[in-house]
Amino acid sequence: MKYRITELEIESIYRRIVDNEIDLQPDFQRGEVWSAQRKRKLIDTILREWQVPPIHLVQSKDYSDEVLDGQQRLVSIREFMDNKLKVDGGIKPFDKNISELNGFRYKDLPEEVKRRFKKYTIRLVRIEEYSAEEAAELFYRLNQQATLTSAEQRNAFFGETRSQVKKLVRIFENNGANRDTIGFSNSRMAYDDIIAKFCYTLEIGTLKKKINSSDISDKYRGEEAFSNEVYERSKEILLYFIDSMQYVNNEKLICLNKATLYSWLIFANRMIHKCSYKELGDYIYRFEIYRERYKQKEVTINLLNKSFFDTFNELEKKYSCLDNLLILFNQKSSLGSTEVTSIIIRDIIINLVYEMCNNHIGSQKLLSRFEKLYEETNNVNKSIDLIAEEYNWGEIL
Questions:
Q1: Do 164 and 132 reside in the same domain of the chain?
Q2: Which of 122, 146, 158, 339 is the most buried (most CB within 10 A)?
């Protein structure tokens, strides 16, 4: 298989499409499937004079070209120049010049902008002297795109926020965060995702606002990074937390997920000046092993001290609601785990069980109130909801 690389101005490409010298719908293509917004983003890319990925063409026997890869891009250009698409002047990052073109069709563009658009060049890769199998394989490889996670997409936003999160992730990993210590690795940038969300939570100072991936993406995209106070606080909490995990998880029994790691970081933020990293580690270990019993998983008894389970059995006898609390925690750590209500419920349960496990602490007001509500309702879910309402839980970290 041989190929030639050329660069053509949009004006020439459009003319060749109109003259049917470029076939936008060969048999192996999928049809015109881009949304209108995605098409407008391509036009925005060209207006900004950013680079567009190359178009791959296959030269047919009659010397016309069929589109192997890039059909959607060419369709978008054709539709815009046919006045079927409008400019979206609100696409981020904000550009004053493009915002002034909002709602314009191609025919409405100022002549200078129109000329610049027509002279924009796109790289064309023309495939020649190929077998059918080679063309099909190349098409498959060009279109075999892995779906990126939100964190992987944000990684393309080069800026100070990205740098801050990268530094925190390195600190987290260099001090022991890995699959063995917390239950999962940074595959697909999982740590980046949670640490960025944790920083954002510290910045807004509440659990009651739902944080969407778009909120964090806007933070990455913007010019204002996390404050030094948020950065240093996040660093302090991450070190405190990973020290606690290194202290207790030698048997690799703790297996967190992204939702529970986030909840433990929130709890660590609350406890950093109230208990040592060893005390925090002991509690995380106990809580996580306790709840494993309600996930239909066997905990290897010989790795644990018998007194560990004796203590748990005593807690179960003293607090009849403990099993339902842990079951509820497990539920809110999987289905709908990123919803505000799930995050708040997990946070309340972690704090309740902490008071159950630590009779020596000076005040157990939360536990006392919960026990009274549970006595009245005989319903763990209802009692948790009432606690959340009465305490306005999560309004302030």
A1: no
A2: 122
pLDDT at residue number 28: 55
Calpha distance 66→60 (Å, rounded): 7
Q: Do 15 and 133 reside in the same domain of the chain?
A: yes
Residues above pLDDT 90, as percent of the chain: 71
Amino acid at 204: I
* pLDDT tens sequence across 339-354: 999 999 999 999 999 9
Question: Cβ contacts of residue 291 below 8 Å, gap of 6+?
Answer: 326, 329, 330
Number of neighbours of residue 251 by Cβ within 10 angstroms: 12
A 10 A CB-CB count for 131 gives 9
For the chain, the C-alpha Rg in angstroms (whole number) is: 28
Q: What is the pLDDT of residue 148?
A: 76
Helix (H) or strand (E) holding 56: strand 55-59
Rounded CA separation 301/239 (Å)? 30
Enclosing domain of residue 287:
151-390
pTM, two decimal places: 0.79
Same domain, 202 and 337: yes
Q: How remote is the C-alpha of 133 from its chain's centroid? A: 38
What confidence category does residue 302 fall into, taking pLDDT thresholds of 50, 70 and 90? very low
Per-residue pLDDT, averaged over 96-113, amounts to: 97
Reply yes or no: is the peptide bond before residue 110 cis, omega within 30 of 0.
Answer: no
